[in-house]
Amino acid sequence: xxxxxFVSFESLPFVKTGGLADVVYALPKALDKENFxxxxxxxxxxxxxxxxxxxxxxxxxxxxxxxxxxxEANIYSYINEGVxxxxxxxxxxxxxxxxxxxxxxxxxxxxYNVAVLEMMIKMDYYPDICxxxxxxxxxxxxxxxxxYEAIEKIRKIKHILTIHNLxxxxxxxxxxxFDYLAFDYKYYENGDLRFNDYCNFMKIGIVYADYVTxxxxxYAKEIQTPELxxxxxxxxxxxxxxxxxxxxxxxxxxxxxxxxxxIAKKYSLRNYIAGKRENKLALQRQLGIEEKPDTMLIGMxxxxxxxxxxxxxxxxxxxxxxxxxxxxxxGTGESKHEYSFKMLENENKGRFVYxxxxxxxxxxxxxxxxxxxxxxxxxxPCGISxxxxxxxxxxxxxxxxxxxxxxxxxxxxxxxxxxGFSFGPYATEDFLNVFNYAxxxxxxxxxxxxxxxxxxMKTDVSFEKSAREYEVLYRKVLEK
Length: 480
Fold this sequence. Notes:
alpha/beta, Rossmann fold, nine-stranded mixed β-sheet, single chain
């Protein structure tokens, strides 16, 4: 039995700020239980304590001494859907309303990494593999190989670091390396822990992990370029032989139109035409727009940021609204984008709706009721929304970048293959060209559109394939 410990700052159903939580929730469930024993370790945040504390089992108490950090912590266990979650309780760093964005984040992340190792020692639990997720956990391989290398059971642990979004790296003053992580200065001096005279958690993880993965094959190539490498492209090219792209999936139990309690009409491939129609009417009623089942209804479910293509969508929207179309947007983001979407709603009453915020039930209703989901991202490591949309028979319109390129196959008119639409250059003209093409397909070729819906719903968007690829990598890293 291969023991794997997922080290992550978030996971569903406990806490989520982005796609990382979906992966850490779904991947352990999808791994072969006969050959892999998987646990997840994460901080015990305030919101988690409020909801799950009574159901947790106390395991142990640890002391964490690391530079200027002198703290205690309790370790708790909670079983969720067959997976054991270990929680590190420390009120100094984790008993807060939010997850990230605090002035002492460097100390919080440092404490967490060291606490994971102290937990292993106290509980005499040593995984074969630590699977670290994003920069919050990225210094763990270096701690194992430098500070804790005298402990054989820790020194023998293999490490896989998964980069979910390279744009977030954890860059801090170099004193973090000494004040909170207690590294010897020589490792900064020789360059192993230094990046442009700063401490960069992601860079440290890339250097010290045995393997580095990211969440799609295309993104694995993109981050080795100066354009999308976020200043780490040289280091990633250096580790190219140990860099793998494994596309994410989704939890198909949570996102299943045949069993989704949130949507108006459950449906599957047997009755998808009627199911989509009823859910579209229900969504139009919920949004307060005209109930017109034959009018094309498109939407976005996204953070409204430059990365997600909110600006390119806004630059094209006036042209789009000249068509026989309805638009729904769900999300929050940059204030200028939120303001623009609010103005669009005021100018297009009955045809354009903007919901400023996030509503899980409404999101499910949009995936089921929209005809097309728009994702014109500047860059997208993997993307989750396009996978959910396809699961519900909503066709994605995406830019060909990262995981969007790997998961969305554009329509081929010659054999009616494909599960969506895509465009290349990040330009309004290119986006409008593919939008107009999709619009024409919807109105002039309804049978082809139905075939695309069927293709989308047949697409394997589960984590099963990804899990098999990770299992191969887990076995490979043990041989390294």
